């Protein structure tokens, strides 16, 4: 009986190792900006309202960032309302980005993440998207661009004076994460 | 015998812990990242056919602390937005169409006016010129008020603070709106005075000036809503 208890105790003692290995990150500051291109206009819509959390364990990191679609400000309320309509922002009020990458990349200057972006009622996947990582004390700054397009999310491209905007709507991510 | 069993159990325990522990610990070592392929975009998929489910430890949307209102779909608002955009698209289209008869009316204006100074023979305009000018004016007014109605009756979206070009665009309506009401009235007064053999006088003589002011304010409103303009036609689309 004793050896069984001993073995069980040993296994139980090994369990905390899992808990200790998991690390968590919280998004403390962020700037998400989409770029829209039209022959007459170059527009950037910016949001600082994103929230995020990252969990690393078992050699994998899963980061989640979300922002309300209506929080993007392009400097023109009329255009923002049109964007909200075109992206079905009231039916699908959040843009959600899930990133997964090897935990080992947390110490490298470039993180290559597989992204899953939920936006406008659609989900798009982007593989090996590079993000620049820079340490800032106990925080880390992640900067990169999601190469999204209107067609990825089946968005009918808005037009102005009969000319539609460019299909590409790259989203630049600049986020500061705090180690918890 | 019992000691032997204890040793086996201990050995199994050590082996198990050795298999279970290393992965998370190894992952935190500073090993260089392997060379990665450049960013590559996969084809979009609908949410019904996700290729990979999130890991059990992956954070969820509920962890982020957004309020229920922020995350909840609002079909009524979407319907209002759809109608709002639809009506403003018609407003934009009709607004541009209206500019055509407005410009033509400005061009035909001097042709519908009696010419001649005091003491000289007055040259009356032909009735064809007057009719054309009046017809263009009526068309402009009809299109203008139809255009305006699509902006006025477009559903308002609550909680939106107006920013940017739309403020100038709307402010200019306080000039061209009254102008579009006054111009035909003054035009009719001027026409009546000329028909009565009088020289156009009084407030009716301001018909041309009011028309030009209205047209300039209208044109500025079109440019204002398009501002700032960054011409980039040469970019690959």
Gyration radius over CA of chain B? 36 Å
What's the pLDDT, averaged over the residues of chain B?
A: 78
Distance between the termini of chain A: 42 Å
| Neighbour order of strands in the largest sheet of chain A | 1-3-4-5-6-7-8-11
Pair of chains with the largest interface and how many residues each contributes: A-B, 89 and 82 residues
Integer average pLDDT of chain A: 89
Pick out the low-confidence regions of chain B. 12-51
- Please estimate the helix content of chain A: 10-25%
Total domains of chain A: 1
CATH superfamily of chain A: Lipid/polyisoprenoid-binding, YceI-like
The topology string of helices and strands of chain A comes to HHEEEEHEEEEEEE
Number of helical regions of chain A: 3
The poorly predicted ranges of chain A are: 10-20
Hey, roughly how much beta strand do the residues of chain B contain? under 5%
Biggest sheet of chain A: strands, sense, closure? 8 strands, antiparallel, barrel
Query: Could you tell me the number of beta strands of chain B?
Result: 1
Overall structural class of chain B, as computed from helix and strand content, comes to mainly alpha
Record keyword descriptors for this entry.
heterodimer, A: 180 residues, alpha+beta, Lipocalin, eight-stranded antiparallel barrel, two-stranded antiparallel sheet, 3 helices, 11 strands, elongated, B: 237 residues, mainly alpha
What can you see in these coordinates?
The complex is a heterodimer of chains A (180) and B (237). Chain A is 16% helix and 51% strand. Chain A has one domain (22-179): Lipocalin, CATH 2.40.128.110. Chain A contains three helices and eleven strands. Chain B has 237 residues and is mainly alpha-helical. The radius of gyration of chain B is 36 Å and the shape is elongated. Chains A and B meet through helix 1, helix 2, strand 3, strand 4 and helix 3 of A and helix 1, helix 2, strand 1 and helix 4 of B.
């Amino acid at each position: 009986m004793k050896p069984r208890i001993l073995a069980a105790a040993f296994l139980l003692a090994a369990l905390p190792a899992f808990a200790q290995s998991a690390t968590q990150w919280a998004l403390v500051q962020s700037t998400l900006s989409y770029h829209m291109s039209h022959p007459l206009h170059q527009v950037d819509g910016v949001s600082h309202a994103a929230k995020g959390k990252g969990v690393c364990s078992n050699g994998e990191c899963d980061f989640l960032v979300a922002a309300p679609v209506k929080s993007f400000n392009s400097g023109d309320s009329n255009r923002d309302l049109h964007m909200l309509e075109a992206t079905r922002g009231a039916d699908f009020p959040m843009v959600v980005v899930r990133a997964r990458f090897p935990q080992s990349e947390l110490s490298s200057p470039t993180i290559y993440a597989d992204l899953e972006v939920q936006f406008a009622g659609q989900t798009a996947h982007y593989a090996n998207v590079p993000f620049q990582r820079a340490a800032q004390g106990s925080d880390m700054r992640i900067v990169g661009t999601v190469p999204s397009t209107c067609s990825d999310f089946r968005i009918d491209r808005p037009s102005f004076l009969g000319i539609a905007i460019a299909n590409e709507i790259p989203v630049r991510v600049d986020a500061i994460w705090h180690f918890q | 015998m019992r000691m032997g069993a204890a040793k086996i159990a201990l050995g199994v325990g050590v082996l198990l812990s050795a298999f279970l522990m290393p992965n998370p610990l190894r992952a935190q070592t500073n090993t260089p990242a392997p060379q990665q392929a450049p960013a590559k975009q996969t084809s979009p998929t609908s949410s019904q056919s996700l290729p990979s489910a999130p890991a059990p430890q992956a954070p969820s949307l509920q962890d982020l602390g957004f309020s229920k209102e922020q995350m909840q779909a609002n079909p009524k608002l979407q319907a209002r937005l759809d109608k709002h955009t639809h009506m403003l698209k018609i407003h934009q289209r009709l607004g541009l169409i209206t500019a055509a008869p407005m410009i033509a009316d400005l061009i035909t204006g001097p042709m519908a006016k009696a010419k001649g100074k005091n003491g000289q023979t007055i040259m009356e305009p032909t009735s064809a010129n007057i009719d054309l000018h009046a017809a263009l004016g009526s068309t402009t007014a009809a299109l203008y008020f139809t255009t305006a109605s699509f902006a006025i009756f477009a559903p308002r979206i609550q909680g939106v603070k107006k920013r940017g070009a739309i403020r100038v665009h709307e402010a200019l309506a306080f000039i061209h709106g009254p102008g579009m009401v006054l111009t035909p009235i003054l035009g009719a007064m001027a026409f009546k005075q000329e028909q009565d053999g009088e020289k156009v006088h009084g407030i009716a003589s301001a018909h041309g000036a009011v028309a030009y002011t209205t047209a300039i304010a209208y044109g500025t409103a079109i440019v204002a809503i398009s501002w700032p303009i960054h011409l980039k036609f040469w970019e690959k689309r």
